[in-house]
């Protein structure tokens, strides 16, 4: 599936829930099912600092696809990370660099991506895109 | 003397709004208090009727504005029982006051001198002292904290020496609500000739400090914590100290005479009030003090103590909930965590329920490091909060626990 198709799939998935509690419960479940980041990458070097919760992000290029793994110490943040990884991981650097994140708004989780929230997610998306750009540059060389 | 909370709540228009479809339960009073209509009206009235620059105009508006501003200074003086009105410096807030003193001490401190700072300070407040140490070669020493969230007074006594020039401590900790024994700390510091600066940002909404009786050298606070607007606060300094400190900023209002060769500084308090001040804010600061004194600090303290006790009891019934800071001397702040649950997650669920709490390290990283936690959920109560709101908080925390574990 393309990034756009994955986003559509998530929008449909979240549309099944009527109220915020069910939506959050689903998000928390997604967070719990997030494949664990290799503890070797849970270091200062891979940390994205937010005032409120911390996020670790790691990226590798495997057969021209970017593979992201990540973690957070807060479970709701982790849920959003799981959503972002489901959408972005396993795609080409070009596709990731060009993708937008408006679907988070459509799902109804926009507030978590507010820069004032200080949970590291805005920086995480920026970092994912930077990885994609870096891999793109690497491929060209 | 019981409070009529229903009537008080009517004074605060914001308490009628909803958040995420639920009635707002505002429990982030330690970050900032809400404003009563009386204070809001005061600001509107100033800009609608007599907005003018102060201390220089001969025209009527300027005189009215100057009188209102200076009358606010007198209200601050009376409220804190300060000897002279010129010992009241109106600042932009607590941080401004601290920086003013720290900057002034540059000309007083020298290599080998020491500053004692408590371990439970707001971390932004540690920075001005670090800068002062860099400028002067003085050394900063930390007064440690005990497990119950109180200061280690024996260690404090041991740290004091002839080298101690300044002691900086908060009256009440923002992270834990602990009331520090400042009267005792001031007395001991004075035995060594050290000056004491007390940060009253968290204290003044709960208690009415008598600065003359405390014999404190400097005291700072912010109006927005006590129902006043943001961007205004006060620095109290003993006259002898304020005369010794050099001006902090240059500009209008702070000068008596200027030629290109030399400037003569204005008398106190204007020496420290360069430029056009926050006039509306200053006047509204006075209105906020009037409002609080109209309710009465004894009644406020008694009511808030009741809320704190009730909230503590009810929260502790939740299995796996830990409260940080257990000093018997505390104000209505409860810092807590649920076992194995991140405070950010709890705060997010509570927000969905219309309940405003603070989560994180409360700008008191050293306190969080002490307990080895990333942060806490902090509920802080004001006299306009109710037991029903405490119940909603408890229900909300239970719901968060159910969802998050």
Describe this protein with a few key phrases:
heterodimer; A: 141 residues; alpha+beta; Sufe protein. Chain: A; three-stranded antiparallel β-sheet; 3 strands; B: 405 residues; alpha/beta; Aspartate Aminotransferase, domain 1; Aspartate Aminotransferase, domain 2; 2 domains; seven-stranded mixed β-sheet; four-stranded antiparallel β-sheet; 14 helices; 39% helix; globular
Structure, described:
The complex is a heterodimer of chains A (141) and B (405). Chain A is of the alpha+beta class and 141 residues long. Chain A has helices at 3-15, 20-32, 75-88, 93-98, 102-107, 121-140, and strands at residues 47-48, 55-62, 65-72. Helices cover 51% and strands 13% of the residues of chain A. In chain A, strands 1-2-3 form a three-stranded antiparallel β-sheet. The longest helix of chain A is centred in the C-terminal third of the chain and has 20 residues, at 121-140. The two termini of chain A are 28 Å apart. The mean pLDDT of chain A is 87. With 405 residues, chain B is α/β, with parallel strands linked by helices. Chain B has two domains: 5-30 and 296-404, Alpha-Beta Complex (Aspartate Aminotransferase, domain 1); 40-293, Type I PLP-dependent aspartate aminotransferase-like (Major domain) (Aspartate Aminotransferase, domain 2), CATH 3.40.640. Chain B has a seven-stranded mixed β-sheet with strand order 4-10-9-8-7-5-6, with helices on both faces. In chain B, strands 13-14-17-16 form a four-stranded antiparallel β-sheet, with helices on one face. Chain B has a two-stranded antiparallel sheet with strand order 1-2. In chain B, β5, α5 and β6 form a beta-alpha-beta unit. In chain B, α2 (37-49) packs antiparallel against α10 and α4 runs parallel beside α5. Chain B starts with a helix and ends with a helix.
């Amino acid at each position: 599936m393309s990034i756009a198709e994955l986003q559509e799939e998530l929008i449909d998935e979240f549309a099944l829930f009527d109220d915020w509690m069910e939506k959050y419960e689903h998000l928390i479940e997604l967070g719990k099912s997030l494949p664990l980041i290799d503890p070797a990458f849970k270091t200062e070097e891979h940390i994205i600092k937010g005032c409120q919760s911390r996020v670790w992000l790691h990226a590798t290029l495997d057969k021209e696809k970017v593979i992201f793994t990540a973690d957070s110490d807060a479970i709701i943040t982790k849920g959003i990370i799981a959503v972002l990884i489901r959408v972005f991981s396993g795609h080409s650097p070009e596709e990731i660099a060009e993708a937008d994140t408006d679907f988070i708004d459509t799902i109804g989780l926009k507030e978590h991506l507010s820069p004032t929230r200080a949970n590291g997610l805005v920086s995480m998306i920026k970092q994912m895109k930077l990885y994609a750009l870096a891999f793109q540059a690497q491929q060209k060389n | 003397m019981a409070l009529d909370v229903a009537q008080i709540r009517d004074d605060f228009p914001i308490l009628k709004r909803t958040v995420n479809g639920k009635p707002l339960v505002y429990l982030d009073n330690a970050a900032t208090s809400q404003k009563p209509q009386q204070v809001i009206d005061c600001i509107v009235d100033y800009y609608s009727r007599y907005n003018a620059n102060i201390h220089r105009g001969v025209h009527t508006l300027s005189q009215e504005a100057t009188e209102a501003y200076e009358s606010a200074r007198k209200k601050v003086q009376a409220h804190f029982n300060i000897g002279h009105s010129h010992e009241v410096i109106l600042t932009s807030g607590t941080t401004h006051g601290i920086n003013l003193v720290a900057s002034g001490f540059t000309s007083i401190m020298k290599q080998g001198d020491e500053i004692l700072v408590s371990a439970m300070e707001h971390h932004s407040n540690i920075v001005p002292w670090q800068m002062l140490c860099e400028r002067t070669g003085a050394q900063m020493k930390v007064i440690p904290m005990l497990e119950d969230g109180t200061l280690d007074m024996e260690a404090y006594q041991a740290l004091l020496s002839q080298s101690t020039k300044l002691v900086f401590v908060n009256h009440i900790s923002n992270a834990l609500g602990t009331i520090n024994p400042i009267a005792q700390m001031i007395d001991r510091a004075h035995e060594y000739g050290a000056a004491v600066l007390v940060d009253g940002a968290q204290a003044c909404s709960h208690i009415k400090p008598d600065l003359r009786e405390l014999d404190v050298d400097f005291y700072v606070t912010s109006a927005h914590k006590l129902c006043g607007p943001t961007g205004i606060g006060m620095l109290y300094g003993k006259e002898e100290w304020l005369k010794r400190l050099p001006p902090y900023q240059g500009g209008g209002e702070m000068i008596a005479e200027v030629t290109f060769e030399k400037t003569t500084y204005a008398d106190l308090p204007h020496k420290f009030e360069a430029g056009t001040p926050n006039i509306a804010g200053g006047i509204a600061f006075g209105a906020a003090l009037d409002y609080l004194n109209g309710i009465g600090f004894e009644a406020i303290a008694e009511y808030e103590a009741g809320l704190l006790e009730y909230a503590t009891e009810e929260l502790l019934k939740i299995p796996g909930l830990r409260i940080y800071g257990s000093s018997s001397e505390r104000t209505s702040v409860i810092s807590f965590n649920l076992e194995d649950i991140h405070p950010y997650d709890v705060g997010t669920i509570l927000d969905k329920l219309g309940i405003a709490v603070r989560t994180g390290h409360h700008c008191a990283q050293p306190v969080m490091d002490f307990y080895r936690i990333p942060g806490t959920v902090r509920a802080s109560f004001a006299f306009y909060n109710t037991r029903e709101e405490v119940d909603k908080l408890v229900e909300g925390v239970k719901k968060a626990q159910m969802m998050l574990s």
